[in-house]
Fold:
Amino acid sequence: MSVLNNTEKKLRNDPSKRWVVQKFGGTSVGKFPLKIANDVAKASMEKNQVALVCSARSSDTKADGTTSRLLRAVAATIKSRTQSLGALVKEIEDDHVGAANKFISNEEIREKLIKDIRDDCAALEQYLNALRIVSETSPRSCDVCIGVGERLSCRFMAAVLNDQGIEAEMVSMEEIIDESIDWKALDASFYSYIANQLVSKVCEIGDKVPVVTGFFGLVPGSIISQIGRGYTDLCAALLAVGLKADELQIWKEVDGIFTADPRKVPNARLLALITPEEAAELTYYGSEVIHPFTMSQVISARIPIRIKNVDNPSGAGTIIFPDTISRHGSATPPHPPKIMPEEARQELMGKTATAVTIKTDVMVLNIQSNRKAASHGFLASIFAILDKYKLIVDLITTSEVHVSMALHEESENGNFHDAFVELRRLGTLDVMHGMAILSLVGKYMRNMVGISGRMFSALAQAQVNIEMISQGASEINISCVVDEKNAAKALVCVHEEFLGKPSSLHVVPSQASLLVEKPWLYSS
Ligand SMILES: Nc1ncnc2c1ncn2[C@@H]1O[C@H](COP(=O)(O)OP(=O)(O)O)[C@@H](O)[C@H]1O
Ligand SMILES: N[C@@H](CC(=O)OP(=O)(O)O)C(=O)O
Structure:
């Protein structure tokens, strides 16, 4: 740990350089703050101006992280009125003060940080107590509390950067949304407004390195319900768009996107390149790699996204970029597309699948119509009930009188019990718990004949029974529902069938440095 006198000359952003936006998840901030400062931010400042965007701190898992604690504290104001709110806030305060003591050497920086943490936590406790007194929490008041998580995390990271010799400042985005504007929808104009607001706040601190709160204000309808957990990815994307950054980097604790979850499939391979469509499908179906709203913002501005590992910063990572358009600043669309060497493009066109993923905690609902309505009325009634109870369907198959749907058991706002009562009025309802959705993802699978056949034969050979099958006409994703007990076996056997052999689209060690220094993605 470098011990730097606070008055020594510190590193600043060089305004003549182009921007790179670097987003860090809560567990990365929790585990690797010094690596973020030295191996990532400081190293990148040789070539670029950097802006950091951070999520709320988690010392271990996201479920034990600050955002989850804040959500529990908000719930406790109403649901468990005897629980001490002070104790819940104290856990958050102790966690951050502990990190300040552990990672910050300079006394002045550390003491100022600890004071700010204590002040923020005292204000939070007062706010929570006020919610308890009025016995009312709204989505807005919940957001106000959640925002404290990113504020604490960014105060901490800015202090770490300063302690390590980088002139940095937290930039809070908690108040960037003008609440007097009546936003009818979170559409393109809303996102472009946010991008502009983010940039003007960042510009206020001149050439200091901005450490931006991933929480970006009181989003109409609430950030959790409108955007969901993982909103920091979207904030980073919008900042990258606003700054016309060269690249958006999402720093994680995994080397990039693999052909399958490397924790579950030991021989999974790191992908050099993946299209935004494929990355979005993987995220929806269990591989939480990047918030799905992030892609469209950045890709339409032709900014590549790179997934990298904080614990292995020299690794190549995975680039998310469309295979049909050129990057920011070059002619678009090129003919033929020149974003990758011809042999890699040929391989991409000829490959069968890109990755396989599994989503657990799924339930299947089977509804058999009681034939009191015509089939279109039957479907319309089902969708109206799902909409009323905010239930999100992951897969659906239908015949005229029979509908099967797969839903995630932990649907954040869903009220299953009441929805089931209403669905039973339409016909017979069977509910199967303990299921999993297995999805084979690949944009070019549609060029191939017999992919589904191979997938289901592989599952049959592994003695995995299939409960439900779904394949859209776009064929980017072939999914089926299996018993959760067979999930691991199913994932491994489908990976072996389609992705068991290495391909030139997987990162091999000799390619890694080449990709970092001069990615073929960018060659003309
Ligand atoms: N196809 C995949 N490629 C890479 N990681 C995957 C994939 N599917 C699931 N994962 C898992 O997603 C997790 C994401 O990384 P992590 O940095 O821990 O998340 P976060 O930044 O959201 O805290 C990893 O633990 C990894 O095992
Ligand atoms: N802190 C928020 C936002 C976020 O983006 O998280 P992460 O980057 O750690 O996925 C959450 O827990 O949802």
The two ends are 42 Å apart (CA to CA). DSSP finds 17 helices and 14 strands in the chain. The CA atoms of residues 112 and 159 lie 9 Å apart.
